[in-house]
Design a protein that fits this description.
With 189 residues, the protein is of the alpha/beta class. Helix content is 37%, strand content 19%. The strands form 2 sheets. A 4-stranded mixed beta sheet has the order 4-2-7-6.
Length: 189
């Protein structure tokens, strides 16, 4: 097996063993202790179910515990993008709470640009981002911040479906236009 094929096979074997071994162990114990088919069957189902939960938590945990970031925008907020800039010189933190369902909230100014001390590393698309209005993000830009923004990284969340934009699409701008747009939005206080 070459490349990731071997890794995929190893993961598949681990998944199968995580379901089969508990079922066999519990089934074997139940058979020795109670010697009753119904109890043995229940123990096998319990072992397999427990193994399946362990597989889900181990290999698909991010689907179960997808973090949520709630962006608390003012009621007059009408922009299509929210921009987070990583700026170690500011005191604004993105504090996550909750172990099984991590969440954080962040107050967004009218312009939709907020600077935070540190962004999650790496900032991927596996975070559910919701505006306080209930709108879910439909686009994501994650990149190093242009030096003119005096920040290290930039993450922008779009909240309008592709093709329905009325504002300039940040993901399609060249760097100079992006800097000008972000600075103009940040100036809106």
């Amino acid at each position: 097996m070459e490349g990731f094929g071997g890794l995929a096979a190893a993961i598949l074997v681990a998944m199968v063993l995580m379901v089969v071994v508990p079922a066999l162990v519990l089934g074997g114990l139940a058979q020795r202790i109670w010697k009753h088919a119904a109890v043995t069957g229940a123990a096998i189902v319990l072992g397999a179910g427990g193994g399946a939960v362990a597989v889900a938590a181990t290999f698909y945990g991010e689907a179960i515990t997808r973090p949520t970031l709630v962006l608390e925008a003012p009621t007059e907020f009408e922009h299509e993008w929210v921009v987070l800039l990583e700026d170690p010189t500011v005191d604004q933190r993105l504090d996550w709470s909750g172990a099984l369902a991590p969440s954080a909230s962040l107050r967004i100014p009218p312009g939709g640009v907020v600077r935070v001390t540190q962004l999650p590393d790496p900032f991927r698309g596996d975070i559910d981002v919701v505006l306080s209005s209930g709108a879910h993000n439909t686009g994501l830009i994650a990149r190093p911040a242009p030096t003119e923004l005096r920040a290290t990284r930039m993450v922008a969340f779009g909240f309008v479906a592709y093709g329905e934009e009325t504002e300039p699409d940040l993901s399609m701008m060249d760097e100079a236009a992006l800097v000008d747009r972000v600075l103009a939005l940040e100036a809106q206080r």
